[in-house]
């Protein structure tokens, strides 16, 4: 098993890619902590993982709230005595608010997508340093590197912040045995909060620009997150892996 007994905390694991990552980690023997603000779907995820023979535990975690982070990590350390892997996956879509010049939406995007990751790295790295290291995987996006019609500037800015924090944190924490990497998905199933990017006409145009001529599947992202979380990537830090069917290679 590729994550045998590793203690892994995944934010936003109640749905989408976070949920697929939680299922994948559990199949690979991890002790999975499902963390989300959606307590209903989060506890359902835990029950389903346990029913499939996996090890899972739910914590309520609002990634924007520093006290919520310290409480969640204290709970994990109290239960398991260590934290080996953090996946900073929680986020909101850049096409949630149709007003692409909304200042309030800019602030919300930066708060959840960027500050949430900053707080996660800060508190997880402190815990990991005490037990000899770990792996942090951040969910960025192709929007960190390219412009897309209909996507709020704040989304790209928040994801570019993640790409940058990944590099800086990888350098800061390398001597503590903590690796920090990012995964940047392209066209995936729409996020729960998507409005514009959930539109079939918008999606068809975007998918037509993908060299592989299809959207990705959540499992295809979860498998890359698994590689970066596991010891198979032991000499990999500070990078971003694009999972985009070649969209940004054109
Ligand atoms: N789906 C895509 O097309 C796509 C593409 C590129 C990158 N991404 C990124 O991948 C990640 C996962 O996306 P997804 O498609 O699975 O989205 P999703 O909407 O299905 O899941 C996001 C999860 O984050 C949780 N969440 C939201 N705010 C939170 C908060 N403050 N604290 C804790 N949890 C919170 C939600 O409850 C939800 O369970 C996001 O960071 C997203 O930006 C998605």
UniProtKB/TrEMBL annotation:
GO terms for molecular function: oxidoreductase activity. InterPro entries: NAD(P)-bd_dom_sf, Sc_DH/Rdtase_CS, SDR_fam. It comes from the Bacteria. Keywords: Oxidoreductase. Pfam families: adh_short_C2. Its EC number is 1.1.-.-. The keyword Kinase does not apply. Belongs to the short-chain dehydrogenases/reductases (SDR) family. NCBIfam families: PRK07231.1 (NF005559). This is SDR family oxidoreductase. The lineage of its organism: Bacteria, Bacillati, Actinomycetota, Actinomycetes, Mycobacteriales.
